[in-house]
Amino acid sequence: MKCQQCQIGRYHTTKAPFLHKLNGQIMVLPDAPAFTCDICGHTAYTDSFLHRMEFLIDRMEDVDSTGSYKPVKLSPNEKTGWQTTRRSR
Ligand SMILES: [Zn+2]
After folding, report:
1. In whole angstroms, what is the distance from residue 22 CA to residue 64 CA?
2. Which residues fall inside 5 Å of ion ligand 1, going by CB?
3. What pTM did the predictor assign?
4. Domains along the sequence of the chain with CATH
5. How far is the CA of 43 from the centre of ligand 1 (A)?
């Protein structure tokens, strides 16, 4: 896979910290599945990871707006695959 930024380098699978700002707070996932360019160092995240993050962030924003915060449970043993089930609204 070619680098989206420099169009020269190639991505290698790696783990990279994923940062997201949510309601004035920074959320950090230290071991997100990602790709890093071997030339310019550009980092891209896997589609499946971003899709899951989108869902989690969406859910967290929902919870926050109601005033009751339920932390999303993350198991350290499930670094490679998070199991999230979509709730119907
Ligand atoms: Zn690059």
Report:
1. 10
2. 3, 5-6, 9, 37, 39-40, 42
3. 0.57
4. 11-66 (3.10.20)
5. 8
